Amino acid sequence: MGSLQLQSIRKAYGGHEVLKGIDLEVKDGEFVIFVGPSGCGKSTLLRTIAGLEDATSGSVQIDGVEVGHVAPAKRGIAMVFQSYALYPHLTVKDNMGLGLKQAGVPKPEIEEKVGKAAGMLSLEPYLARRPAELSGGQRQRVAIGRAIVREPKLFLFDEPLSNLDAALRVNTRLEIARLHRSLKATMIYVTHDQVEAMTLADKIVVLNGGRIEQVGSPMELYNRPANLFVAGFIGSPQMNFIDGERFGDSAKTVGIRPEHIGLSRDGGQWKAKVIHVEHLGADTIVYLESDEVGPLTVRLFGEHRYAADDVVHATPVIGGMHRFDAEGRVINSGR
Amino acid sequence: MKPRETTMDVSEIKRPRRWHILVFLLPALIVYTAVMILPLIETLRQSFYNTVDGQYAFVGLGNFQVLFGDPRWAADFWNALRNNCVFFLIHMVVQNPIGIALAAMLSIPKLRFSAFYRTAIFLPTLLSFVIVGFIWKLILSPIWGVAPFLMDIVGLKWLFAPWLGRPDSALIAVSLISVWQYIGIPMMLIYAALLNIPDEVIEAAELDGVTGWSQFWKIKLPLILPAIGIISILTFVGNFNAFDLIYTVQGALAGPDKSTDILGTLLYRTFFGFQLQLGDRSMGATIAAIMFLIILAGVSLYLFAIQRRMRRYQF
Ligand SMILES: Nc1ncnc2c1ncn2[C@@H]1O[C@H](COP(=O)(O)OP(=O)(O)OP(=O)(O)O)[C@@H](O)[C@H]1O
Ligand SMILES: [Mg+2]
């Protein structure tokens, strides 16, 4: 239980089409992440699945049942919002229990479920508090707890961590990963954060302008991007794109990830001047300008003593090249 | 590092006297004192004075003794106070629930022409009470009113009665006219409070299965409770100061047979006199003082007992 099928989902606001035919299949127990630039329709798609928006056309099926006309609460889903969306006038306990209470679940059972969820999220000390008396991280955990107690088939998360600071984000991320393992529920998760996407997902869905660009496991997307957009979107720093002609290649564009370029002072394929160097400790990012292939970003592991205005030689790693045709589709990927 | 030293340093910093604050406050203070505080003090003072043997003299609580002790004064006063309470209760049970309902309907996102409804319902509040009173007198007049005519069209003429002219219905009729006029204020305040509830909270409720009426009772109503409190106290102050509408609809005698007499009209007749009754400043001031105490008590009750218990929600 907990599978999802989307078939040619379209959604328009007035005349403006936001989702332009989305087909997607999510298997039971999968952790699927939607990524894409701002405004590409991630939230809209999630809200369509939840039933908060009606699709203009297309079908949404949960466990093989068409839910297009089923009320949100009856779809067996739970959603966690970016802004937490807790009920400000209720205590943590009542926030988590309201859905069950509304469904007519007997009190002792609500108590038990809320207690269990609070235990999983270490919220026991705060059960009697109101949302205003909690920190941001605690509030987000309450929002997650509210989703858990309903024991949904499908969890929907809309950028749940983006209001949290970096350290808390890592913790909560781990917590969500742990939850996914222990609940074995299907989860769909929207994020802007590459690290979140790469670390949490079984499957990443890259959206752009209301369309799906590619669906695949994190490593598939990293190693075999289907087009220029995905190649540029996944991976940080961004992939280098080089004009095929300058490169002497039949492809329109050739992409090389910054970590797939080697640097040497003595000799190599392209001579280049160092423009800027960023020392990150574990990594060193070197920005180059080469006469042959234009600007290049290179990511080296560990510390390196390059400085601006040094003259260096860059060599692409064999098999690290992605070739794209004039429409931006991949011709072949290195590995 | 000695923390004690730092605290001493802080306390030793002398702030320059900020005279300009006083200067900026002064104009408002002067105006407010001249038009509000002095008249209030003067009224309260007058309620302790009266003319004794042709001499203006301090009589202590004598005026209050007359007001509550003399059967005729007391009858008038208690009648006005009781009518005023009825007036207030009708506002509380009619105006505010309807205001909330209108606001709830206005905040339905799919409602069309909501800006039009909002303006239309708020419009009477902007009208002068003279116009409102006059319009309703015309509408409800049994002789040339439009109400009997319209009710006749739909076959309800038998329901019509000269509501403003009958002692048992006049107060209710006048209260409802006042409700009609001021319904826009609770509606707007509640509407603003409802708009203040974030969409995502409502959506979370939808996902929790809390929809329709139970959503209103369990989510929206608790969140607009502070606004309802403010509306109640505004209604209270407004109703116990009311005078104008009754004066225009029923005249200073607040007829028929004083059945619509409230504290405001009683004060007016007492202070300025009307027809055969001579104006009595001291007794007028005494009634004004009582009105002040009633309103003060109500506002204090709200501020110290109710508002403190109420939570304001940040979203
Ligand atoms: N209620 C609405 N009415 C009209 N247009 C809307 C509405 N909601 C969203 N849109 C439009 O739909 C598009 C997609 O919005 P959506 O919120 O799904 O983006 P998103 O991918 O979640 O972006 P972000 O990453 O910034 O949250 C945007 O161009 C937005 O302007
Ligand atoms: Mg979004």
Give a quick set of tags describing it:
heterodimer, A: 335 residues, alpha+beta, Rossmann fold, OB fold (Dihydrolipoamide Acetyltransferase, E2P), 2 domains, six-stranded mixed beta sheet, five-stranded antiparallel beta sheet, 9 helices, 19 strands, B: 315 residues, mainly alpha, MetI-like fold, 14 helices, disordered N terminus, binds adenosine-5'-triphosphate, binds magnesium ion
Top-tier CATH class of the largest domain in chain A: Alpha Beta
Which strand order do you get reading across the main beta sheet of chain A? Answer: 6-7-8-3-9-10
Element string of chain A (H = helix, E = strand): EEEHEEEHHHEHEHEEHHEHEEEEEEEE
Using only C-alpha atoms, the radius of gyration of chain A works out to: 24 Å
**Gap between N and C termini of chain A:** 36 Å
Let me know the CATH homologous superfamily of the largest domain in chain A.
P-loop containing nucleotide triphosphate hydrolases
* DSSP strand count of chain B: 4
Oligomer: heterodimer
When the domains of chain B are counted, the total is: 2
Largest sheet of chain A, in brief, is: 6 strands, mixed
Instruction: Name the pair of protein chains with the most residues at their interface, and give those residue counts.
Output: A-B, 24 and 21 residues
Low-confidence sequence ranges of chain B: 1-8
Silhouette of chain B? flat
Tell me the strand percentage band of chain B.
under 5%
Q: How would you classify the helix and strand content of chain A by structural class? A: alpha+beta
Summarize model confidence as the mean pLDDT of chain A.
91
Helix content of chain A: 25-40%
